Amino acid sequence: MAEQEQQDASGGVLTRGDAEGVTPQGTAKDSLSVTDNRTGEQYEVEITDGTVKAMDFRQMKVDEDDFGLMAYDPAFTNTAHCRSDITYIDGEAGVLEYRGYPIGRLCEESTYLEVAHLLIYGELPNQDQLNEWIFEITHHTFVHENIKKFVEGFRYDAHPMGMLLATVGALSTFYPDAINIDDETERHMAGVRMIAKMPTLAAFAYRHNLGLPYIYPDNDLGYPGNFLSMMYKMTETKYEPDPRLERALDVLWILHADHEQNCSTAAVRSVGSSQVDPYSAVAAGVAALYGPLHGGANEQVLRMLERIETTDNIPDFLEGVKNRDEKLMGFGHRVYKNYDPRAEIIKKHVDEVFEVTGKNPKLDIAVELEKRALDDDYFAERKLYPNVDFYSGLIYEALQLPKDMFTVMFAIPRTSGWVAQWLEMTQDEETKIARPRQVYSGARQRDYQPVADREQKVDPPTGVGATTVIDPAAGPTPSEGR
Ligand code: ACO
């Protein structure tokens, strides 16, 4: 059989019609035959691991001057942007595994720090390694005193996620050697420092909002216990965390540690691909997590439950969702088209926490809301199920956390996932600077007009707070004046 060869866009050769592994039509089985109807040309594109390379389409042109075919995928809904060995999700089946270990098993048997080691180094640590890992993390929880001053500079009501975002980014200026991302020790130390300091930064932000003195880390306590101490310690000489709350927090943190290529992780990889230092890359992850469609959803769930007020109002609320006046926050997921396994595990731990803290009355609304939504065709047809954020906020509220802190509680454990994914990216030979393409749909070759000849073609916004509606004679706006 005649062998037909084509150059792929990166210079590789795609072979067609080899004797073995061919279809009756003479095409290789792990390939895609494409006919470009614009030209009648036929191409064969390799399929590896259920994917085709977008660059293999670049060779498909209408003529020599044509740039070549591109894939158009806003929001990366069907584009794998990396290979990864870290987290496996089967969204249809509701399966989540870290490095091959089912999430349920890790929640039952492991601790967050063990899981952080697993995510970053690929294996659960043995006892000696675990002791060393805990020692390292415990001895890097302090932050430079200037970070404290930095936090003090925020307004009293600054959103703690905004403070966290800024302080994580600021860490890069305290550890300038972290820019040496080719140095294994620097990479390791950046990971250790971020996992160790994130709870400290989070607790400082919380105490700042309350006007309370910042509490320094206590090395006698475990990772979640130390966090609770930095959050809640008052006049007692030693804070003694309730072991049930410590364990519940640890489980929540295991559940939030990684979730493959979600918005914030993709942000960390994308920003990190420019070879910036890892603190700056993780700050990008914190920024992405802040958004209400991502980590900010847990905060929105509680606001939603508050608005619903009583179970009697649920039917009206769900009608509002179906009419698209509302969104059922904490429901739906880009990947899970089944019950999010994390939501299932959290739901089981809700009662344990309430045993210590007392029941959060909003639980009844949440349970009823879930039940009614799952029984409703609108949600069933769209495969909308509770996600990780649906129940986590109820636990955070029971821990007396203000809603502003909920996403911070997500950022603390996700740090190990961001670090693991960043490390994997730096070691991947296929990594290049992330640089998507666009389909340009704007004007071309316009005639430039001097300012005096131009007509006004764009109307500025006129809503409350817009610069155009401010009377200069009235002095500074409230936010500028404070
Ligand atoms: N409430 C009501 N309808 C919803 C919801 C929801 N929470 N989520 C999705 N839908 C509907 C959409 O309107 C759409 O319906 P249509 O096809 O009739 O237009 C359909 O379900 C598919 O939804 P998409 O928006 O296409 O799904 P996508 O994968 O883009 O979005 C997302 C996923 C952002 C999570 C979405 O489900 C959502 O906004 N959920 C609420 C916010 C939330 O809980 N976010 C946390 C996610 S978990 C995490 O980030 C940690």
Indicate the mean pLDDT: 92
Strand neighbour order, sheet with most strands:
5-6-7
Compounds present?
acetyl coenzyme *A
Summing up helix and strand content along with how strands pair, one would put the structural category as mainly alpha
Please summarize the sheet with the most strands: 3 strands, antiparallel
Order of helices and strands: EEEEEEEHHHHHHHHHHHHHHHHHH
Low-confidence stretches: 1-19
Shape call: globular
Radius of gyration, in Å, reads 26 Å
Approximate strand percentage: 5-15%
Task: List the total number of helices.
Answer: 18
Kindly state the percentage of residues in helix. 40-55%
Whole-Å distance between the termini? 79 Å
Count every beta strand, where a strand is a DSSP E run of 2 or more residues.
7
Give a verbal description of the structure.
With 482 residues, the protein is mostly helical. It is 45% helix and 6% strand. It has 18 helices and seven strands. It has helices at 103-109, 112-121, 127-138, 145-152, 160-174, 184-210, 223-232, 243-255, 263-272, 278-290, 297-308, 314-322, 341-357, 362-374, 377-381, 389-398, 406-427, 478-481, and strands spanning 4-7, 13-16, 31-36, 41-46, 87-90, 95-98, 101-102. The strands form three sheets. It has a three-stranded antiparallel beta sheet. Strand 5 (87-90) and strand 6 (95-98) form a beta hairpin. Helix 2 (112-121) packs parallel to helix 8 (243-255), helix 5 (160-174) runs antiparallel to helix 10 and helix 10 crosses helix 17 (406-427). The termini are far apart. The protein binds acetyl coenzyme *A (ACO).
